[in-house]
Design brief:
4-stranded mixed beta sheet, 23% helix
Length: 320
């Protein structure tokens, strides 16, 4: 009687597990491509980690004016801070991928598999940047539906508004809205607006802008305003009083080409700005192979959320 042939790696895995053989190289290309251009959103966002399904911020009110003692026996007046509104970040998951047949693997001679891994990485990067830009793109009410849940922030107003309600301010409101195109004069109005930012009781909080955020269409105008020796846009020989005050951030995904505006601009105080980005799962690249069809599958996955927890620390103009 013949001796049975014992299974071996060679005659059992008839596909040679080609999908797994490809994975290390495609994984390397994916992550190299993903990181080939510096992130833009992280220049204006607080980038944080999360180990939960969602993150919640709770706002608080603020104390009003102190009470003058009328005598040596006057009792302390105890104030009360009102509870603020809830801000919730729900981490959503996103995927994309591609498939490679065994025949493509055997016959392909033009580097198309490498190109697919690179294209997958680039589309993931672009999606994250576009999503992160939405709070600024939707920051103004112009052309938006009033009351729309995807436009208004936690206080029922758009991110940039002159009517932000104050929970301990009575009828007072806060403003982070200025108007007009990006000019030296309008930038100074915005800087003044930033310094007039108030807390929930209407008290000044000494905000100071450190960044100017613009779309690509305003890059050179912004550089002239920030870097000219004399005041930009005039024939006067006045010293440029904003020179060196602000760092310039050119955010490609704010522009009209990405669904935004070529005229809107913003200034930011990074110590106060509450544009928050939470990584629940950073981008990953995985592979699998179907035994019967010999088709290898490659997919990317990430999970994140972004939004705003406070309107303070950012002042903006729609450029109109």
């Amino acid at each position: 009687m013949a001796t049975p042939v014992q299974p071996t790696t060679t005659n059992t895995h008839v596909s040679q597990n080609f999908g797994k053989l490809l994975e290390p190289g495609l994984r390397k290309i994916f992550f190299q491509t993903y990181a080939e251009v510096p992130e833009q959103f992280s220049k204006i966002y607080n980038v944080l980690k999360s180990n939960k399904a969602k993150e919640t911020d709770y706002g608080l009110g603020a104390f009003g004016d102190w009470t003058k003692r009328t005598s040596e026996l006057s009792e302390v007046t105890y104030g009360k801070i009102s509870p603020g509104l809830e801000r919730t970040y729900i981490h959503e998951a996103f995927t994309s991928g591609f498939m490679i047949s065994r025949e493509l693997y055997d016959d392909e001679q033009y580097g198309q598999m490498n190109k697919m891994a690179a294209a997958l990485a680039r589309s993931g990067r672009a999606f994250i940047e576009k999503t992160a830009a939405k709070p600024l793109i939707q920051a103004f009410s112009d052309g938006k539906s009033s009351g729309s849940s995807d436009v208004n922030i936690y206080d029922g107003k758009t991110l940039i508004s002159d009517k932000h309600p104050l929970v301990d301010g009575g009828s007072k409101t806060g403003s982070n809205l200025v108007t007009g195109a990006l000019t030296d004069a309008n930038l100074k109005i915005a800087l003044k607006c930033m310094r007039e930012t108030v807390d929930e009781a209407g008290n000044l909080i000494s905000a100071r802008a450190k960044k100017l955020v613009v779309p690509p269409a305003l890059e050179y105008q912004a550089r002239e305003i920030l870097n000219s020796t004399q005041t930009a846009g005039t024939d006067l020989n006045n010293t440029n009083s904003v020179k060196g005050m602000l760092d310039l951030v050119v955010y490609d995904y704010l522009g009209a080409a990405a669904g935004g505006s070529d005229t809107a601009w913003f200034i930011i105080d990074p110590t106060l700005c509450e544009l928050n980005f939470f990584w629940r799962v950073k981008p990953e690249f995985k592979a699998d192979e179907d035994f019967d069809t010999l088709v290898a599958k490659y997919r990317g996955y990430f999970r994140f959320s972004c939004g705003v927890s406070d309107w303070r620390g950012i002042v903006g103009s729609a450029g109109k």
